[in-house]
Structure formats: C-alpha cells, structure tokens
Fold these 4 entries.
Entry 1:
Amino acid sequence: MKTGDLEPPWIVDISDTGTQANLNSVVSWRFVASVNGTVVFTDTAPTVTVDPVNTYKAAVKHTWSTGQTAIVGIYKAEIVAVWPSSREQTFPGLGTAVLTVETGID
C-alpha cells in the first residue's frame, strides 16, 4: 500500500488446524497492528467471515480509517479471538501478518 491509502482493506486468513475449533463460537475479535513496536490501531470490531464448511478457518478484515496508513514501514498484525470464559487465542500462532506501506511517487 501507499501512505494515505484507505483501500483495499487488510484481510488476514486465519485457521486453527490443530484443534479445528469452531470459530463461530468466538465471542469477540481484535485486529491489532503495529509499526516498529508501536501500536498503530486496535480494531475491536473487524469483519469476520467464518468458512461455512471448515469452521476452523476464517477471513478477518480491517477497514482502514484516515491516518492509519500515514506511517511508512512494515505493519505487523495479530488477530485475537476471545472464546467463552474470556479465553484468548492469537492468530497467526507463530509470527505475525505483515503488510508494507510505502511512500507514493507523487
């Protein structure tokens, strides 16, 4: 992406292949992104689309707001699912989702 862009949304595909837990049971979601260790945004209402057949897979979408792509750099994101009884699970299980924001040429 380029600085200042608000499209396309950031979509992260997640899955819990280990337990194949039904992601429809998650009670809340957070999409958290940082640049150079500083949190740029915490989306407490991302759009989550659970696969209707393989319910342990989902696509989690963050819709950008003005200012969120103002920093040039590598954005790292984690998706946090909160299960019943406040049990949290972070996706991806290893590492982070990555997106690069660059300066435009104009």
Entry 2:
Amino acid sequence: MRLIWGGFVLFFLFSPFLKAETLGGGKGGPYIQYNNASLSRFDSEIGGNPLIIGGLGFGWASKKFRIGGGGGGGFLWSGTESAQFGIGYGGMVGEYIIADWLLARMMIGGGGYAVSKIISETDTTLQVKKISSGGFILFHPQIVADIKIGQWASLGFSIGYFLPNIARLHSPSFSIQLMFGRI
C-alpha cells in the first residue's frame, strides 16, 4: 500500500513538469484477460486457467504518458468441476505511447486470491478443502497493440506477464480491451 501512495505522491510532485495543463480528456473501458497459469500448480487434481474481467481508465499526463487505475476479478476458465477459484486485484496504471498504435503499460497494485477443492456436494451441503488463499502485491507489465476503430474508440490486444509475489500465480497474460475517450 505504501508503494501505491508513494506513486501518487511522486505523480503530484512532478506533474507541473509534465505540462498536463495543455492536455485534456482521457480514456477508459473494459477488458478480458486470460492468464496462462494452470491451477494444477496448487493441486495436481485441479485444472484450468484464470480468466479475468475488469476495467481501466487513464488521464493524459503528457503527450507520451497516461496515468490512471484499473482492476479486475477472475474465475476459473475451463477448469475441473471439483475446484473453486477466485481472484481480484487493482492498482495504479501507467501507459507510455511508443507509437500511435503501440503502447507500453505497467500496473502496480495488489489483490487477493483463493483456491479450494470440493470434497463432497449434495443438494443442501457443500464441503470444501481450502488449498491456498491470501493477498499479493502485483506488477503487471504489458505491450499493447491499439487499433483505432472510430474517432473515440479503439480495440487493444495485449501480451504481458502477470507477476504477483505468489510464484504459483506468475503467468503470461493475453487480453482484449475496448477503450473509449480521447485516444
């Protein structure tokens, strides 16, 4: 949490040098992200990968840099029926414009997760065994190909690396985003 507040303080200290007053607007929208980390890392009887649905929003800080926030929540994609999984995270996001269509993005934040195995299930009861749960600090660098589909909209495809401080959750990530606003 100190890291997030430190980022906000640094942004406000250096924002006069970014000439943000000459820029206006921002952009934001939803994304769907697939993480290529099998949950079999937690238990060999559990299969499937996390699918995350979330949103991002940015404001212009300079001609080449945007800053904002984002977050998402996820569930198990095509997993075994004997497992339960949940993940949620959020944080600050910075985006550097390399070219009109190419962006470098970094999310710094935190979240939590839980993995459980279903032991038995009836119509009235569900017995689960907790495999792992906890909080994490997250670094998530990405490269984004941003394709304009209108004056105020773009479709983005990204590849990145989901890097929380929980090694079993590390994975390459692939996402699709639909952004609206000043592109």
Entry 3:
Amino acid sequence: MSKPTTWTRDFERACLVWQARLGLTDWTIRFGVEKGDGTKWAHVDYDVDARQVQITAYTFRELPRVSPDRIAMHEMLHILLADYVSIAANRGTDTHADVVREEHRVIERLLNAWRGKP
C-alpha cells in the first residue's frame, strides 16, 4: 500500500462530492492507494447486492494531466451504472422491463447532477 499524495487525497474528496451529487448515497465507499504502473489513475470494484465499493487510486511518478475531479467523476459514473450493467447482464437484453427502468433511473440521476441536485 502506498502513501496518499495530495492528488489522491483530492481524488478521494472529489469522489465523495460526486457520490452526493449523483445521488449514490446508498453505496458505502472505501478508498485505498496502491503503486501504479502508469496505465490507469484509479480502479473501482463493487458489489451491487451489498452496495459496497472499493476505489483504488494509483500513485505515479508524474502528476496526471487530468484533474482528480475528472477521474473521480469517471469512477463514480461506473458506480452510477453498476445496477444497470448488472441487470442488463442478468437479463441478457436491453429491452427487458428491469433494464429499461434502470436506464431511466440513470438518466434522471444524470439530469439531477447536471442541475446540481442529488
């Protein structure tokens, strides 16, 4: 496990902001930091049923050209889409009623985030 850097601490704070902004407060998030190989800035593992998320930020030699907020939003959008992806995979079709319902829930959360509402 690596020591957090200013970038990784900013990333964690940004993840929590996006969690609230996207209305993902039903998820419990744990953060970790690991030494990176330069191929990615962060990674998300989640358990849809348990509503548990592990977000790992990676350390690197050079600061990324992308802001921690941008990377945080990207990772939190994985969580936003987690239920949708899980349901679509389980149902095997994008036209199943559960998949369509989840798609609309994602759209509404994005619209609320755009307006600055949870």
Entry 4:
Amino acid sequence: MSVVSGSIAEPVSSMVEFFSFTCSHCANVNNKVHDYVTRNNIQFSDISTNMAPNEIQTTMMFYLAEDAGIGWQFKQAYFSAIRSGMTAFTRATLDTVIQQIQTPKLIQLLNDQGERQKIKNKLLFASQLLNKYNIQGTPSFLINNSTLLEGEDIIKKLSQR
C-alpha cells in the first residue's frame, strides 16, 4: 500500500487510524502504532471500519473497551484470536476476547445506560469520518486532520522523518 494523498511536512500532533478487525496489515501495525503514539505523545483515535450488521457488535464492544481504557488491548486480543483460527465477528470470538481483557471498569461500562448513548454517538461519528474520507483500504491514517495515508509501513516512514 502507498500514500493516498499528501505528504507530511509538519510534526505529527494527531492521528486517526481507520482499521478492520480482519485486516492482517492492521494486526501487523497495531503494536507499532501504539508505541509510536505513546512515545511521541500524539493525540490518537481508532475508527473501526467494521460497520456491517454482522460486525457491529464487535465494533461496539471495541468502543466500550476504549472508554474503559483498554482499546489497544482489545484490538491485540482480537487480532490474536483471529490469527489463532477463530472466526471473526462471532459471539465465541468476542466472548474469548472479553474474557482476556476484562477489567472492573469494562464490566461497569457494560451495564451503564449512559455508555450506550456514547457508543451510539461514536458509531455515528465513525460513519461520518469513513464517508468524509472515503476510506477504502486499511490501515489508513489521517494525520493532523489534513493528510490521508494508507499502508502498514506508515509508522516506519513517520519514525524516519
């Protein structure tokens, strides 16, 4: 995958990653993205492209895990489950992932009515961004709200600047 549009001249201050739970490239870059944004104190958001009816429950659980502060761990556990042969977007896979990352905060949010509305708002926002930027491939990265890049080698390129 290559650059979709633009190049980056200024320092990276914000990054949005558009990813899919079934994308091997997204799985390959997950730790690198996490390390890069943490090391460089970059404002970061994840947007799941998995919005189809059979995928939405996984996306909703991911956003809940993000609100519990364990979104990165959710992604890691999900990618690992898929690599191990589990089927994407099944209840069994989701249950396995939740069991691995379960925290008191996650359990609290599962039962919080206000959290449900937050998740609905996140889904709407994600849909708007996916449409606005016409995201076709993953992983794709929106850098500083102005440059859209695609591919798993983006973090390597950003680190070399």
